[in-house]
Amino acid sequence: MIKHYFKQALRLLKENKLLSVISILGTALAICMIMVIVILYVVNTAGFRPEVNRERTCYFTNIMSLGKEDGRRMSYSGIGLPLLETCYYPLQSAEVVTGVLRKRWDKLPASTMDGLRRYNSQVILTDTAFWQLFKFDFLDGAPFAPAAFMSGIREAVVSESVARTLFGTVQATGKEMKLDFTVFRICGVVKDVSRFANKAWAEVWLPYTTDPGYRQGWCEGINGNFQCYALLKEGKNREDLRREAEARLASFNSTLSDYKADMLHLPTTQVEEWLYGGNEKPQDVSRAYLRYGVVLFILLLVPALNLSSITFSRMRKRVAELGVRRAFGATKRDIVSQVLLENLVLTLAGGLLGLVLSFFSLWLLRDWLLTTSLGEARLSAGMFNGYVFLAAFLFCLVMNLMSAGIPAWRVSRVNITDSINS
């Protein structure tokens, strides 16, 4: 029976080519717009290599220093090393804590020792815990060792692009390069990282102990240039981490003479970082979800209403046919099921076309949609999971029910005699 319905649906597609094209395109454009939003949400919030632990990662990106006596705001900036070492590194609610110095606005020239090949590279200075939090794909070598980090030995992990540009191969471990005229030995080469992984992304990774100014700070060690990322232990949540960090911060403040630190609403989650970028004012994420939900609902509802009108118009032409079916014993349920299955063929065709259009749209509008604070990003297969595609077909199903269910129900209620005589 179902096979018969599908054959009939294909025959109806050929008989009503204009309406079929309108139905398929209407569904496809709706799915396309929704999928673009879903894909951008996923790549900015869901875990993919190397940021596989996004759901369990919290971020201490800034700190505020205040006058200890008058409470006047003094500075809102990155974290100082003394505060990082005293308050954040020892956190027991975290499985891994890493400190990062990101030279976001400076690209340093990496070159071969003879200076013939160069690559302007984005640099992150970090510690050894960084390689435990983020799961990079090493093509050659390994991260810098704890002993090298503690000793400030000039070792570097470079991206595949840097290695190929400078040495023509990813087998670059043990080779030397100059980074802003300072010699570093390459200890590892990793696959290129998407800029959507904005916490882990760089092209060269160095121990922060190789930077002469890494201890630079102000306001009695409260402020500096560090950011801190913490991976929650199993069974712990952000509030556990926050309470522990506040207790350690209060103890740290008691040792200061002129200033006190306030971490405000931190730590933030991946979703908050994406939506608000670590803004110093706490935000309600549920409102953002509500706004996106309303947008998605409208994108789904408007074409569904239009398709419902088209479907009902088509049903009116088939009233006699459906009346004959009912005269031969078909129930209202059979009629509705037939119409839904027939319309499902249109909806699935539109859904598949919408999936293709969504990726084409992302490529076509990449200069707008794929631009991050770090520059233009690229999409990769590792960013997507089955939930994205499942969501697309779920939208197809909802579209089918909304656009065909009501017209089918109305037609099924028409009197059999009236149906045959129409």
UniProtKB/TrEMBL annotation:
Major subcellular location class: membrane
Record keywords, A-Z: Cell membrane, Membrane, Transmembrane, Transmembrane helix
Protein name: ABC transporter permease
Positions of transmembrane segments: 21-43, 289-308, 340-364, 384-403
Membrane topology, from the record: Multi-pass membrane protein
Record PANTHER family: ABC-TYPE MACROLIDE FAMILY EXPORT SYSTEM PERMEASE COMPONENT 2 (PTHR30572:SF18), MEMBRANE COMPONENT OF TRANSPORTER-RELATED (PTHR30572)
Domain ABC3 transporter permease C-terminal: start-end pairs: 294-416
Residue span, MacB-like periplasmic core domain: 20-247
InterPro entries in UniProt: ABC3_permease_C, MacB_PCD, Macrolide_Exporter_MacB
Presence of the UniProt keyword Kinase in the record: no
Organism: Parabacteroides hominis
Localization, UniProt: Cell membrane
